[in-house]
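Task card 7
Instruction: Convert sequence to structure tokens.
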Amino acid sequence: MFDYVIVGGGSAGCVLAGRLSEDPAVTVCLLEAGPVDDSLLIRVPAGLALLARTRQANWGFETVPQPGLNGRRGYQPRGKVLGGSSSVNAMIYARGHRADYDDWAARGNPGWGWDEVLPRFIRAENNERGADAFHGTGGPLNVADLRSDARFRSIFIDAAAQCGHHRNPDFNGADQEGVGSFQVTHRNGERFNAARAYLGPARERPNLTVITGAHATRILFKDRRATGVEYRDAAGLHQVPARREVLLSAGALQSPQLLMLSGIGPAEHLASLGLPVVFDQPGVGANLHDHIDVIQVFDSPGNHDLFGLSFPGAIRAIRGVFEWWRHRSGLLTTNFGEAGAFIRSSPDEPIPDLQLHFVIGKLVDHGRKTLFGPGFSCHVCLLRPRSRGTVRLVSRDPRDAPLIDPNFLADPDDTQRLIRGFRLVRDILHAPALAPYRGQELGSADAQSDAQIEAFIRDHADTIYHPVGTCRMGPGADDVVDAQLRVRGVQGLRVVDASIMPRIVGGNTNAPVIMIAERAVDFIRSPAPA
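Output:
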């Protein structure tokens, strides 16, 4: 028996396991469905381009057909490996806007305002730039500037500045708005995922047990108290008892799935699948939302500083292998999305509602489609979509993927903001700084009117991999967890991951998930009365 059993070895699960096992008086078990994170494709930052094309370390989910995307199924990659999605993502370190967290607090979640969460971001961080009022040193998570020598990120920044966007050297500092280079979760030219940050120092502790290849099938209950977890591995079914708490950190798609498989969820839905109901909670699997994103792509003939399948590009890649192997520098230290911006879709917006990611290559279909020759592309994603969807069970078999319905572009406001964002990106990509390198616009050149741009968006937009909200935190009866992340209606169970976000943050979600887990550790160690 363990004091704590953690389900999911992703970013949040690694934080919980590493932090809780610091206390030698408690025992911790971490269950992860995927393998250990020892693949070279994970360690090499540029390896993410190949990870996207395979099911290695990736659940590789799809959505149900999306009416807002002309019936297309969206792609939903999620990490299936120690470190979770921090092992397969683009490693961008972004926290969101301070107003996001003040909004969480205003929605009835005390302790989650900006002034309360900033110290947890700082505690988690070892920023190679040094400590200041917004950044920390000495924390587990290494945050660094890119070592890549790609010159095009500075060209993109110049182009955006020519369009009136001010330069911002630190998106996580005093002001988020502007254009600049992203910091990344790297150390010494390698990906520094949550497993390396939090499990690396903890793996030899005798009070921590990490079990990989362990697919959780249900949470065990006795009189509405979580008493452990059942999981399946190659040898069959096993049960792990929990003396104090079960901590569910399976992510915004699979935490609600496991709750429903365990009898916590909409009673009518559970009964339709013959599942016993432990607690009728309609909020489980509701409130799914995500950053919807669309990309513009350009050829850049002859510019082999950019990625693209060509003979000169292959020679450069071979040289990059040697640079990385010998010095942990050069081409393979890129995260591809090296620069970006936080901007407002109109001057009336009080804070940025759009995020740009500039990619030093031609990105189509999540990198799964090969385009020949060098080029560049730029994403625009909607930071606070109004559309809401659901996660539901397809069957009572835990091995079946959940039914994922983000309901993209159901709210007309989302579409209008993306149209405005599309035009802002086009202005930047046509700015003078990029003129010497700009070739043919691929796919979107004919999208000129609002109606044509909307048609292009509906034909091509998809997630940028930030699903949240399906176990929403809040004070209401339909909110799944309270402000200390305890699941309503039962005891001994918390959810700790992106699913608890009442509303998505305005930025990439990995750093906020790590902060959420750091915050949860405080609650677990010093709980308030239920």
